[in-house]
Amino acid sequence: MGGGPMFFPESPVAGNLCALVLSTCLALSLLRLFEETAKRGVFEQKLNRKLVHITIGLAFMLCWPLYSSGSEGAFIAAVVPGVNIFKVLLIGLGIVKDEATVRSMSRYGDYRELLRGPLYYASTITFCCMMYWRTSPIAIAAICNLCAGDGFADIIGRRFGKKKLPYNKDKSYAGSIAMAVAGFISSIGYMYYYSMFGFMERSSGTAVGFLVVSVASSLVESHPLSTKFDDNLTVPLASVLIGTLIFS
């Protein structure tokens, strides 16, 4: 399903390079925007971080139809988050100093935090792009639950999460429900989006599969082990494993 790149369909190389430039510009523009909002204190730091968390991955997925089908398009697209892996490594290791990035991506303003959540985040998106690409519900489920699901779980949980879960007092019913709903709705949205380009088929079975993955990912995120190991790692792992069982 799907064909050549949207730009220069007769020349996959040129088309993919144009798509790469556009995707990179979009990602850099969003990162720059949130670096500015963090610097100016437009949002509280944790909210600013979560807005980065939600938007970057989802916006990158919007660009996938610009690339050619098959492994060539997938690997070229993966350059965008792949470069970010090296960026957060350099900053997290203290080799490069970038206070704006640290403020926009860290919880407490410590550059070493980038070696956990932000690194797992960029690695997940790169992996899903390269291994599953836009024809796989697994990629959609993993990225949507990581970005939209986990992001809204924190935002909603902090504001409306007075009722805590019995097995984890740091998590709330409101946050867990918000995660399942946001992950599911965004997954359905991307299923419809990619079906417009012929990359996948819309079906009730796939929708039910997305619901199961989102609920399961929400349960994993709410477990104390996710706090210990970082939910940017446990949520996509759970999504990929459960998605593999459902969609394969």
Automatic annotation (TrEMBL):
Alphabetized InterPro entries for the sequence: Phytol/farnesol_kinase
Keywords carried by this UniProt record: Chloroplast, Kinase, Membrane, Plastid, Transferase, Transit peptide, Transmembrane, Transmembrane helix
GO cellular component terms, A-Z: chloroplast membrane
Superkingdom of this protein's organism: Eukaryota
Bilayer topology annotation: Multi-pass membrane protein
Example GO molecular function: kinase activity
Transmembrane segments: 12-31, 51-67, 73-96, 117-133, 139-161, 173-193
Subcellular location per the Swiss-Prot or TrEMBL entry: Plastid, Chloroplast membrane
UniProt family annotation: Belongs to the polyprenol kinase family.
Protein name: Phytol kinase
